[in-house]
Write a structure and sequence with these properties.
Blueprint (H helix, E strand, L loop, with lengths): L10 H21 L12 H17 L5 H14 L6 H22 L15
């Protein structure tokens, strides 16, 4: 893991996870002392759609590639919204997929196929 002076590969994710956990605990404790609205209904349909999109991404990213997996993740997740519009969602999916490819594959150099072997890529 390393130290603050000589950070190893696990240092940042562990510190970030610990800080997020502390924020979560503080928010939970604070909720008992602040007045507010009760929690409304739980949106099971929307939660299921987003969870399915994330699981599909995990299944597809290695063999289909980042481009199709990311595109489907964003498009299916957008479908969970009541304000879903196909044209805007397609534009968002294309833009975010290109951003993800540029960031993770090109800039960070992660060994992730853009188009995977299932679709004729590397």
């Amino acid at each position: 893991m390393g130290s603050a002076g000589r950070m190893g590969p696990a240092y940042f994710p562990i510190v970030l996870g610990a800080l997020l956990s502390l924020i979560g605990v503080a928010s939970f404790v604070r909720s008992f002392f602040r007045p507010g609205e009760a929690i409304g209904r739980i949106y099971y349909r929307e939660l299921t759609i987003v969870l399915a999109a994330v699981l599909l991404f995990g299944f597809l990213v290695r063999n289909a590639g980042l481009a199709p997996a990311g595109f489907l993740l964003i498009l299916i997740s957008a479908y969970a919204s009541d304000k879903f519009e196909l044209k805007k969602s397609l534009a968002l999916a294309v833009g975010m997929t290109l951003f993800a490819i540029g960031l993770f594959v090109k800039l960070l150099g992660l060994p992730m196929p853009i188009i995977g072997p299932w679709l004729g890529g590397n």
